[in-house]
Amino acid sequence: MSLDDTWFSEASNDYGVAFSLKVEKKLADERTPYQHIEIYKSTHFGNVMAIDGVYMLSSRDNFLYHEMMSHPVLYTHRDPKNVLIIGGGDCGTLREVLRHPEVQSVLQVEIDERVTRLAEQYFPELCASNHDPRATFFFGDGIKWLREAEAESLDVIIVDSTDPIGPAEGLFAEPFYRDGLRALRPGGLLAQQSESPLLHMKILREMYTAMGNAGFADIKTLQFPQPVYPSGWWTATMARKGEKIDGFREQAVAAMSFETQYYDAEMHQAAFAMPAFFKREISERR
Amino acid sequence: MSLDDTWFSEASNDYGVAFSLKVEKKLADERTPYQHIEIYKSTHFGNVMAIDGVYMLSSRDNFLYHEMMSHPVLYTHRDPKNVLIIGGGDCGTLREVLRHPEVQSVLQVEIDERVTRLAEQYFPELCASNHDPRATFFFGDGIKWLREAEAESLDVIIVDSTDPIGPAEGLFAEPFYRDGLRALRPGGLLAQQSESPLLHMKILREMYTAMGNAGFADIKTLQFPQPVYPSGWWTATMARKGEKIDGFREQAVAAMSFETQYYDAEMHQAAFAMPAFFKREISERR
C-alpha cells in the first residue's frame, strides 16, 4: 500500500526506510533562518514536531529520548552542579535535568529560538520547568559558545542536537569535543545523541575516534528504543574527562524524588549493554 | 510527504503508525488457504516477507528477533534437549536453536507450509540448518498439536507466531498455555513473542494473566529492538513450570561456539530490564 497525505512520513532515503504517523492537522509551519519547522496533531502520538522533514519528537514517546539523554549521565557524575545543554530547544531534556535537586545551574544554548517558542505553545508539558530560577536560555551557536566557555566551569555537557548534517555537523567533530573537554571539570561528562546502531555505525565509529583524539579518557554508548527516529533504535554516547565511566550513584537513583517512564537503576546498567556487533566494530576501531 | 508504491508500507491503523521500506521489486505473491504472503526485494534491507500486509522479517534485521527468541530461553534452561517451535515458518528461530549442541531434537509446527517453502527460496541463509537430522517439520495446527502432545515431553516451547489476531489468536489464550504447561517437563520454559511495550500493553497484561491462570510459576519479559515491527520495539515473554526464572548458564554463553550479532551474556541480563512504566503496569496487574 502507499501512504497518502493523511500521514506525515519521514523517508530516510539513504537507508531505504521510512516512518509515518497518521496526522489530523498541521498546527504550525515556519521557515526560520535555520530550518523548516512543522508541528502536527497526530491521531495516536499526540503533537509531533519535525525539522526539515525529520521527526524531532512526539508527545507520546519523547520520554524515552529525554530520560535517556539526561538521567544516565547525571547519575554517572558524582555531583553534577553546572550543566550545559547544546540544542535541546524543545526543553524536554532541560525538564529532566531540572528534576535533579543537586543541579545548581543549567544553561541551554539553542541556535533557533523558534523551536523553543513553538515547544512552549505545542509541548507545554516539556516546558513546564522553563521558569525554574536555575535555568538560563541563550539563543545562539553552541559551537561558538563552547569555544569561548570558561575552562573547567562545567560538570556535564549534553549535546541534544539534530543529525550530523547541516547546522549540527560541527557538533560531531574533534574541535568541538576539544572545547568541551576544556570546559569540563575533572571527572566531567559529555553526553551526546549518537544515532542508530543499525543505520549509523559509521557516525558512531567516527564519533569514538574524534572524542578519543580530543583527549577524553573513556567513551561508552548506551541504547534505547525511540520509535519516531529512523529504525526506532537509538543511542547516546558519553565521554569522560580524566577517568573511566564506571558505576553510577545507584542509591540516589533508588531514592529519586520524581517518577520516570523508562529509566531506573536497573535500566541504567542495562542500557550500556550494546549488541555483539557493536562491541566488535567499536573495539576493532579503538 | 506521501509515500508512493516504490515503498512497501505497513500501516498499523489502530495505532496511527506506519513503517515502510523502499522496494525494488516483488519477488513472490501467494494467497494460501491461511494468508496472503508477499516477498519483496528492498533497496537496503535485503529480502522482506510480509503476511497479510504485515512485516514478518527482513534479511537485514531479523537477527534481532531470531536471536532474542531463542538464546535467552535456551540458556535460561539448565539442559534443553527437546524443543518445540510453534510457527516460525521462516526457519530463522530454528536455525538459532540448532546452534545449541545440547539440543537433541527440534520439532517445528507451522500451519502454512508455503511460508517455509518461500523462505527456503528467498531467505536461504535462515534455512541453512533445515536438513540438520535433529530437526523435524510438521505442517499443521500448533494449538491442536500441543493439545495432543505427550505430557512432560518437552524442555522448551518457543511460540514464534504472527500477532494475536486471526489464526494466531488461540496462541495467546489460557487453554493453549495450560496445554503447554502439561507438555513441559519440570523447570521447562515457554517463550513467546509478545508485541510492543509502547503499543500493546493490553496484550501483555492479558498474556501475564493467562499464563498465570494456566499455572506457570513465574513469568518474565525481555525487550529488544526490531525495526520492521510496529514502533521498532519488541518483546518476548517467558513462563516457567514449577520454578522461578532466575539466572542462566552464563559460562556456557561465554563459551558459545557460534557468533551472534546481538545476543551475549551481558545482553541476556540487560534485556530483562524493562521500562519503569512496564514494571508498574505488570506488578499492579499480578
Write the layout of secondary structure elements.
2 copies of one chain form a homodimer.
Chain A: E1 7-12, E2 17-31, E3 36-42, E4 47-51, E5 54-58, H1 62-76, E6 82-87, H2 92-98, E7 105-110, H3 113-122, E8 135-139, H4 142-147, E9 154-160, H5 174-183, E10 184-193, H6 201-214, E11 218-225, E12 233-240, H7 250-254, H8 265-271, H9 276-285
Parallel strand pairs in A: 6-7, 6-9, 7-8, 9-10
Antiparallel strand pairs in A: 1-2, 2-3, 3-4, 4-5, 10-12, 11-12
Helix pairs in contact in A: 1-2, 5-6, 6-9
Describe the structure.
- 2 copies of one chain form a homodimer.
- By secondary structure, chain A is an alpha/beta fold.
- Chain A has 9 helices and 12 strands.
- The longest helix of chain A has 15 residues.
- The radius of gyration of chain A is 18 Å and the shape is globular.
- The model of chain A has no long low-confidence stretch (mean pLDDT 96).
- β2 of chain A pairs antiparallel with β2 of chain B, so a sheet runs across the interface.
